[in-house]
Design a protein that fits this description.
Layout lengths: L9 E5 L5 E6 L25 H14 L5 E6 L5 E11 L4 E8 L1 H37 L3 E6 L5 E4 L1 H6 L15 H4 L5 H14 L5 E5 L4 E12 L2 E10 L15 H7 L3 E6 L4 E4 L1 H7 L20 H14 L1 E10 L5 E10 L7 E8 L1 H21 L7 H23 L4 H8 L3 H10 L15
Helix pairs in contact: 10-11
Length: 456
């Protein structure tokens, strides 16, 4: 295998006194004009601190024929400075000196970058230490119990004094360096609930908080959890806030299987955020919309399956924000496989002022409406219209029935939309202009009331 010779970056031919007669540069120093050095003393082309070193190199070359390698800071014709490693040889046949040099600029640049990287790492380390110190101070002074768990086996890795007190010492490391387990400090009836919550946090990244009992005697705490990284793997950061009141041990709030009851309930139950995005759904809702798993629903808008889609969802959210709750809102629910049923929706937010989570209960009334409409509604209308037979012709009876029905639905749409005529028109499936035409036809003002009659 042949190796290519290493070409010098600087080559100088000088007389025995060190005056430059010939000079050439490699591509590394492209753009430099070597002719400007001709006739000058080589020692005058380097930094003043290196001139004595350069005189020594020249003397060794004159006396011994070759000098060892030395590093000097060379001032180039352009005015830039570059570290260059030189050796000088005496050419006996011509009584000349040959100096060859290799630029160390690339090595110097790498060294500078290494120093900068080391300094950046030191700054980051100091910031991390400062952050860790502040985090520990806040954690130690927190009124909440804070526990860091290993996600693999739920061992306690760290805990603050409040958590140690709540757990009765279970949070502290035991003999041999083995840490305790949060489950050991829980009431036996609460362990499954906490395990389910942590499993949900691991799968979805978030889960609703639950009530658990800790210590002896048991005290009630509100538990929340989130994922975090610790020691190169996942961990759970569990926050335990005291509830301030202790439920009776005979029937603690955390033992009541509320979530299980909702999951197995005959009516659909869905939890959405303030934008209408689905966060939780029970099996009854999955059956109604003909979906196979809850995972396929999460993150999708509830309006996707409602009869009037965005309009129904907008009305539902607007009324929850305005009133805090909605009762018996009628609409239709569409399934993924083509089914369509009549439903009644009731909803409430988790906070009267600002609802970040909304619970929605959906009841299938399709069968009830079909029987009731035949047994009561249809019979009532038929009986009312029958009494008009003989007093007016058929066309007048039909027109009168259509007017009563249309006015009834216009009133209902305006009530549901809170007086918003654009939304009311969308609920009725007509344009806003058509809605105004019906206002004019039936003598109604722009709010759907009889013209000229002020509101009550």
């Amino acid at each position: 295998m042949q190796t290519r010779p290493v070409m010098p970056d600087v080559k100088l031919i000088m007389d025995m006194q060190g005056h430059i007669e010939q000079a050439s540069f490699s591509g590394v120093l492209a753009g430099e004009k070597a002719t400007e050095w001709l006739g000058r003393s080589w020692t005058r082309t380097v930094r003043e601190a290196d001139q004595g070193l350069l005189d020594g190199i020249l003397n060794e070359a004159r006396d011994h024929g070759v000098s060892p390698f030395r590093q000097v800071v060379q001032r180039l014709p352009s005015g830039n400075e570059s570290p260059i490693e030189f050796t000088v040889l005496r050419l006996n046949c011509t009584s000349r000196l040959l100096a060859v040099g290799k630029s160390l600029w690339a090595i110097a640049e790498m060294q500078n970058r290494l120093v900068e990287a080391q300094q950046a790492m030191e700054r980051d380390y100091l910031r991390m230490r400062d952050f860790e110190t502040r985090y520990r101070q806040v954690t130690q002074a927190s009124s909440e119990a804070i526990v860091l768990l290993d996600a693999r086996d739920l061992r306690i890795l760290e805990s603050n004094p409040m958590a140690d007190e709540a757990l009765g010492g279970e949070g502290r490391a035991t003999k041999g360096g083995r840490a305790g387990r949060l489950m050991d400090g829980l009431h036996p009836d609460d362990r499954d609930a906490l395990s389910r919550m942590l499993h949900e946090v691991k799968d979805r990244g978030v889960a609703p908080g639950i009530l658990v009992r800790l210590g002896v005697p048991p005290q009630s705490w509100y538990a929340r959890a989130s994922l975090t990284a610790t020691g190169g793997h996942q961990g759970f950061l569990v926050q335990l806030a005291p509830t301030g009141d202790q439920p009776p041990l005979s029937q603690p709030a955390s033992v009541i299987p509320l979530e299980d009851l909702m999951e197995r309930g005959p009516d659909a139950f869905v939890v959405i955020d303030d934008q209408g995005t689905i966060l939780r759904a029970n099996q009854a809702f999955l059956d109604m919309v003909q979906m196979g798993s809850e995972t396929s629903l999460l993150g999708k808008p509830l309006g996707r399956w409602l009869g009037r889609s965005e309009a129904d969802l907008a009305i539902l959210l607007a009324n929850v924000r305005r009133l805090g709750a909605v009762r018996l809102f009628s609409t239709r629910l569409h399934g993924e496989l083509g089914s369509e049923i009549e439903v009644e929706i009731s909803a409430a937010g988790n906070s009267p002022a600002s609802s970040s989570h909304i619970g929605v209960c959906i009841r299938n009334v399709d069968r009830r409406l079909s029987t009731e409409s035949r047994a009561t509604g249809t019979a009532k209308w038929i009986d009312l219209l029958t009494k008009q037979v003989g007093k007016a012709n058929l066309r007048h009876l039909v027109d009168e029935a259509v007017e009563v029905i249309e006015r009834h639905y216009i009133d209902a749409a305006l009530e549901l939309s809170g007086g918003n005529r654009t939304v009311a028109a969308e609920l009725l499936g007509i344009s806003r202009q058509s809605l105004y035409v019906k206002f004019s036809r039936y003598g109604l003002d722009e709010n759907g009331r009889p013209g000229g009659i002020p509101p009550c």
